[in-house]
Amino acid sequence: MAITEDEARKVAHLARIAVKDADLPALAQELNGILHFMEQLNEVDVEGVEPMTGVEPMRLKRRQDVVTDGEMQDLILKNAPDAREGFFAVPKVVE
Amino acid sequence: MSDLNKLTIAQARDGLRKGDFTSTELTEACLGAIDAAGALNAYSHKTPEKAREMAAAADKRIAAGDAPAMCGIPLGIKDLFCTRDVPSQAASRILEGFLPQYESTVTQNLWDAGAVMLGKLSMDEFAMGSSNESACYGPVVNPWKVDDRQLTPGGSSGGSAAAVAADLCLAATGTDTGGSIRQPAAFTGTVGLKPTYGRVSRWGVIAFASSLDQAGPMTKSVRDAAIMLGAMASVDAKDSTSAERPVPDYEAALTGDIRGRRIGIPREYRMEGMSDEIDALWHKAAEMLRDAGAEVVDITLPHTKYALPAYYVIAPAEASSNLARYDGVRYGRRARLGAGDGVVEMYEKTRAEGFGPEVQRRVMIGTYVLSAGFYDAYYNRARKVRALIKRDFDQVFADGIDAILTPATPSAAFGLGEMSGKDPVEMYLNDVFTVTVNLAGLPGISVPVGLDRQGLPLGMQLIGRPWDEGGLLNLAQSLESAAGFAAKPSRWW
């Protein structure tokens, strides 16, 4: 599988990273190099093997579904690049 | 008392308890060494005021007879750990100005034990790298130097390794996703331990690849690693993958008796093109363990070859999800926007200027392998191969092997800039001996065993059974004392 310039553009957009058109050929080439390296995995017989999800065969811990934390709006907004009236502010989302 | 910064944790603990010196004196010695070591660029942020306050508090505890082992011990903290009101930016421009309003569980555990924070240590951006060259603070320089070249301290915990090797702290925290504790430890003649996955809480540690990340100690001796792991580890309700297991006394496990322990030598780790020196040192290390009474056995881990490609699918996949949170909304940098730019332009511009090239590359690779149509071909296949890699280890341990001995790295430290412009895959090869351990969730430790012809340190790795850090540390200490590695970098900075 080889990544074309168009696909590189699509991946960059999915990743929400702006890439200049002029940089797309180099990006596609780099990604292809890495994918080529990964293709060694096709040599392995994985028939009947379950994909591993975690290293310990343990069930995730459960707890009572209750509020354990909160009432810290100021602390949460403290690092926001733009916070107004108790909210995170962003550019217009809906036209 | 001079040169207090050169002490190990164990020596300092004993001296503090005896009243030979105070934590304040110990801390001042470290702060002085840090100020004189700007050329190494190890600390990205210094916290001298905080250090002095914490040292004074520790001195009071010690005087009152309430002194856990880490009480009064000055530490450096990798920039990946969130520390309250102290910059914590994973060496990335995207977290510029971020001041966490909470403390990571690991650092909180250390402060509760009385340890002293000297500052934050540089690293590869988001822990992605093996040379520390991707840090937004500029590269860290290895205190080891044999010619005109400046060498890498390794990565990603390169600031931690350089600071420990140059005595700019007594010990440091590191994190290891594919070798990020063990490779820099090997490059700097220090000890680095990656615990079993789940032994140390990940809460408050900036996430790279959540199923692989694990924090651990970087120290001047194996004993210190045992002491510090005991303080870092805990059962933590805030990390759903934190194991419900009591934390044993790791120092008590250092009995010095390794008779009858079975050490496996995996034939697949004898890589093509591996240097004679590393091969010879590997043989020598096996001899040392045999002389101490262990039984050395040849073993096979047949899927080793596929660990690196599997890792470079799984780690970027998890990273692309974890790093989605850096969007310019809640913390860190937001790009300056043009007239008419909407929220998507804000995301794209913020991430383009906030992430460095290696992070961008991995986020995009991760996005690709998780995208519709490729998920099965790459991501699911890699996770199946991961299951086979773990099965290889399970089999070996079921056959009665207690630990596995391998080289820690394929070479000694290389020069800064020597890998730039090369294929990214070449840099990834640095992790060839260490990634298997993260994929299988096992504990692994790098111990300095000798110097190469140039005079640079080389490390050996011991891999243990899950949850057997105690047994692993005991073997590592046996290797450490047989090797008698005492070399230190001569000061040029």
Automatic annotation (TrEMBL), chain A:
SUPFAM superfamilies: Glu-tRNAGln amidotransferase C subunit. Gene3D superfamilies: Glu-tRNAGln amidotransferase C subunit, N-terminal domain. GO terms for molecular function: ATP binding; glutaminyl-tRNA synthase (glutamine-hydrolyzing) activity; transferase activity. Keywords: ATP-binding, Ligase, Nucleotide-binding, Protein biosynthesis, Transferase. It is an enzyme of class 6 (ligase). Pfam families: GatC. It catalyses: L-aspartyl-tRNA(Asn) + L-glutamine + ATP + H2O = L-asparaginyl-tRNA(Asn) + L-glutamate + ADP + phosphate + 2 H(+); L-glutamyl-tRNA(Gln) + L-glutamine + ATP + H2O = L-glutaminyl-tRNA(Gln) + L-glutamate + ADP + phosphate + H(+). InterPro entries: Asp/Glu-ADT_sf_sub_c (IPR036113), GatC (IPR003837). One of its GO terms (biological process) is regulation of translational fidelity. Transmembrane segments: none annotated. It comes from the Bacteria. Its EC number is 6.3.5.-. Allows the formation of correctly charged Asn-tRNA(Asn) or Gln-tRNA(Gln) through the transamidation of misacylated Asp-tRNA(Asn) or Glu-tRNA(Gln) in organisms which lack either or both of asparaginyl-tRNA or glutaminyl-tRNA synthetases. The reaction takes place in the presence of glutamine and ATP through an activated phospho-Asp-tRNA(Asn) or phospho-Glu-tRNA(Gln). Belongs to the GatC family. Heterotrimer of A, B and C subunits. This is Aspartyl/glutamyl-tRNA(Asn/Gln) amidotransferase subunit C. It comes from Paracoccus versutus. The lineage of its organism: Bacteria, Pseudomonadati, Pseudomonadota, Alphaproteobacteria, Rhodobacterales. The gene is gatC.
TrEMBL record, chain B:
GO terms for molecular function: ATP binding; glutaminyl-tRNA synthase (glutamine-hydrolyzing) activity. The active site is at residues 78, 156, 180. Signal peptide: none annotated. One of its GO terms (cellular component) is glutamyl-tRNA(Gln) amidotransferase complex. It catalyses: L-glutamyl-tRNA(Gln) + L-glutamine + ATP + H2O = L-glutaminyl-tRNA(Gln) + L-glutamate + ADP + phosphate + H(+). Keywords: ATP-binding, Ligase, Nucleotide-binding, Protein biosynthesis. Its EC number is 6.3.5.7. Residues 25-473 form the Amidase domain. It is an enzyme of class 6 (ligase). GO terms for biological process: translation. SUPFAM superfamilies: Amidase signature (AS) enzymes. Belongs to the amidase family. GatA subfamily. Allows the formation of correctly charged Gln-tRNA(Gln) through the transamidation of misacylated Glu-tRNA(Gln) in organisms which lack glutaminyl-tRNA synthetase. The reaction takes place in the presence of glutamine and ATP through an activated gamma-phospho-Glu-tRNA(Gln). NCBIfam families: gatA (TIGR00132). Heterotrimer of A, B and C subunits. This is Glutamyl-tRNA(Gln) amidotransferase subunit A. The lineage of its organism: Bacteria, Pseudomonadati, Pseudomonadota, Alphaproteobacteria, Rhodobacterales. The gene is gatA.
